[in-house]
Amino acid sequence: MKKILFFISDSTGLTIETLGNSLLTQFNYMDAERITLPYINTVEKAHQAAQTIQWYCKNDCKNVLIFSSLVDPEIRKIIRNTKAIMLDSFETFLPQLEQALQEKHKKNIGLSHAVKDENTYASRIEAINFALLTDDGGGTKHYDQAEIILTGISRSGKTPTCLYLALQFGVLAANYPITEEDLHTYTLPKPLQPYQSKLFGLTIQEDRLQEIRAQRRPDSRYASSKQCQVECQQAEDLFKQHYITYLNTTRFSIEEIATHIIHQRGMKRKRF
Amino acid sequence: MKKILFFISDSTGLTIETLGNSLLTQFNYMDAERITLPYINTVEKAHQAAQTIQWYCKNDCKNVLIFSSLVDPEIRKIIRNTKAIMLDSFETFLPQLEQALQEKHKKNIGLSHAVKDENTYASRIEAINFALLTDDGGGTKHYDQAEIILTGISRSGKTPTCLYLALQFGVLAANYPITEEDLHTYTLPKPLQPYQSKLFGLTIQEDRLQEIRAQRRPDSRYASSKQCQVECQQAEDLFKQHYITYLNTTRFSIEEIATHIIHQRGMKRKRF
Fold first, then answer.
1. Which of A39, A204, B33, B197 is deepest in the core (most CB within 10 A)?
2. Residue at B42 is within a domain
């Protein structure tokens, strides 16, 4: 029978989705049907959510699993009454935390992804604008403000990583493409030369690069096996020659690439 | 005494930071010092992490709190031996899940933010490229592919929301700015007219708008009280007149705006 996963929250549902998916990597539930019910912040909405769950349960709740983060015990109780298997992050951890911190919890709902303060928010928006301004070799005159400058050949993952660094961590991240000309002459592009210490290289395996490029421009020289092989090898040589730290992004998600960079550089993770 | 929070993970640390910060919204720990130790995936690194924690504990571990997501019990034990208060998401929930699912867990580490499959990954990158291509009124000829088109006056939150929708949920989201001319004539910009059903409006309170614009262009007409007031009012009128659903973004984080839109439109949250 098909397994059904509910993610229920009194706010966006992002926290409980993240936690639930992390736990489920340990079980054979990755292909289950997922239903997120966010903003369950009133008794009425809780009853509606419970009805939906009951509908999926029919006579048997064994295949229905609920992950929830519900601060209000009354709302939680309505969901629990469905008899589906339910794990709630607040219910589980708040008593432990109250005991450890010797403090009662506040009962505020929906604060996890709320705006914390206007200055932090402004610095996040600034980081996003910076990433757009300096994407793909743009705005090089602003490089003195950059905290990091990613560089690499076309389709090595520079743009998504910069955007993620900006959105998630508020990092001022620029990126600059390495062209064939730079590769042939083994020279760093001129705009990068004064910023050696800010540079971080991205590389990628040639077969994966070929796959990605072929999706964009099938049967082109750009996506040919030979071209991808030469560019990958020369880019790595260029990084080595100029003592630029680099990461092979082939098997990594955007989250992993970004956190590797942050970690490697000892950069501060801002919190939004 | 200053409170110290550790976030320890065998992978990126993103899951445990999200969970820990969510729980801490319920206590007076929001201003504590935060230290994330990612990639603690060997016994050796665990001992180093434990030393760092001990250094912060000095003689008293009461002010040190550890949130961790460590799959390996041996690594977890080394951290637990520090005697600081420790909450581990796997340790807490895996036994409950094993019992509920009648299944032993896999002991795989670092899967939460790993690449799940190449197709999902490609659709995420496609969404990011789409957001960049159609940012700020660009690429309107691709609107037939858009799942949503955000519209609103300058600095109402369109660009960050589109980028977040793409990165987090893989949504093809475009955005189009409303200019003074559109406002004066109460007409929808021409490129938007064929896509009424895809439109979603963003509004913002005039005082907050003024603040944001003043940071960009102080003492300009663009940032003047009068101008902000008129634009806010006229944009809202325009949305009402054309039956465009809209959201006032003033008090919302990017995460909240994006999930509101997804929820309101009944769109699928893709998982990366």
1. A204
2. yes
State mean pLDDT over B209-223: 93
What letters, b where the CB count within 10 A reaches 16 and e where it falls short, cover A178-189?
beeebbeeeebe
Of A152-161, A238-247, B39-48, B91-100, the least confident: B91-100
**How far is A23 from chain B, CA to nearest CA, in Å?**
7
CB B26 within 8 A of CB A105: yes
Are B95 and B122 members of one domain? no
pLDDT digits (tens, 9 = 90+) for A123-145: 999 999 999 999 999 999 999 99
Those of residues 144-183 in B touching chain A at CB distance below 8 A are: 159-160, 163-164, 167-168
Taking CA atoms, B133 is separated from A153, A173, B7, B227, in Å, by 20, 19, 37, 29
Q: Is the pLDDT of residue B59 over 80?
A: no
Residues B160 and B258 in one domain: yes
Chain A residues 59-118 with CB within 8 Å of chain B: 65, 69, 71, 85, 87, 89-90, 92-94, 96-97, 100-101, 103, 105-108, 111-116, 118
| ipTM > 0.90, yes or no | yes
**CA nearest A89: which of B272, B15, B39, B79?**
B15
B60 domain-assigned: yes
Buried b (16+ CB within 10 A) or exposed e, B136-163: ebebbeebeebbbbbbbbbbbbbbbbbb
In a domain, B184, yes or no: yes
Q: Which residue's entry shows tokens 């581990």?
A: B88
Q: Residues near B191 by Cβ (< 8 Å), separated by ≥ 6?
A: B137, B140, B143, B176
Return the H-helix or E-strand segment holding B173. Answer: strand B173-177
Shortest Cα distance from B196 to chain A (angstroms)? 26
- Global pTM reads 0.93
Overall domain count for chain B: 2
Do residues A25 and A127 share a domain?
no
Which of A73, A101, A129 is the endpoint of a domain? A101
CB-CB under 8 Å, A111 with B25: yes
Q: Say how far apart CA B181 and CA B229 lie, in whole Å.
A: 16
B94's enclosing H/E stretch is: helix B89-101
Å between B84 CA and nearest CA of chain A: 10
B93 and B124 fall within a common domain: no
Alpha-carbon distance A82 to A6, whole Å? 12
DSSP state of B145: G
State the residue range of the domain holding A42: 4-101
Contacts of A94 (CB under 8 A, 6+ apart): A105, B23, B26
A12 alpha carbon, distance to own chain's centre: 16
Instruction: For residue A8, give the nearest of A61, A75, A81, A107 by alpha carbon.
Output: A75
User: How confident is the prediction for chain A on average, in pLDDT?
Assistant: 93
